[in-house]
């Protein structure tokens, strides 16, 4: 018998992201995956982040970590997150170093037990790191050395984190080679882009060559934010529209999740 006694979403469930142009629901499994998202300002990146974070916040086996270079983008979720990094390079680097250590410890434990993959649980959650405006940390703030360290740490976490239960979702307005270096972007299995202003940035987000093959984010409807391409399972990008949560809905889920996670006063 299976009785639902509370929110019991899991990172191993398919998260609902919206609808494909064909009308089917977009459902995506984020466990053991990473996602890179691009798109011009106003193209719907935050909309997608909110939909994913809402489900992660209600998942028993997810610990949320937000990097919010623009501060206001992920702020609504701050109470539901275990770590919230604003536009602070030092804190961003400390957080990545901590994640790297968690990853190394988990690998040591997996290897001692001769197990290949971390199994998500409430006690040993998946760490989901959501980075809004990657560019802020890779090309705007801090010193050159700090930005390089940020890129190196992030690359290591994206490259090795999956089996250790670390999921990275990174978003940027300007998908370009300097902001998302090739060595970093090629590590992301899932790619998503809202409308872009050049075929180059469309290709940086989705992967080289897709614009020429008809998946060009310049062709997306500027009047319809959330209109986007998703490259996930199946090997071909698919056109979709991201589901939309209003500010009120976000506030409701965020405060419920914060309460569940013991973060906010009940009254
Ligand atoms: N999926 C969607 N459905 C309907 N409207 C949307 C959707 N996504 C975004 N919008 C509308 O477009 C506006 C801008 O979207 P959003 O904030 O997600 O863009 P963004 O790509 O994050 O922009 P920025 O780079 O400036 O942060 C939203 O405030 C909302 O009004
Ligand atoms: Mg945004």
For the structure shown, list the relevant keywords.
alpha/beta; about 270 residues; single chain; binds magnesium ion; 10-stranded mixed β-sheet
Would you identify the regions where 5 or more consecutive residues have pLDDT less than 50? Answer: none
- Can you list the strand order of the major beta sheet? 2-1-10-9-8-3-7-6-4-5
The secondary structure category is alpha/beta
The gross shape turns out to be globular
Q: In the CATH hierarchy, what is the architecture at level 2?
A: 3-Layer(aba) Sandwich
End-to-end gap: 35 Å
Q: Work out the helix count.
A: 7
Helix-strand pattern: EEEHEEHEHHEHEHEEH
The largest pleated sheet is described as: 10 strands, mixed
Small molecules in complex: adenosine-5'-triphosphate, magnesium ion
Number of strands: 10
- Return the domain count: 1
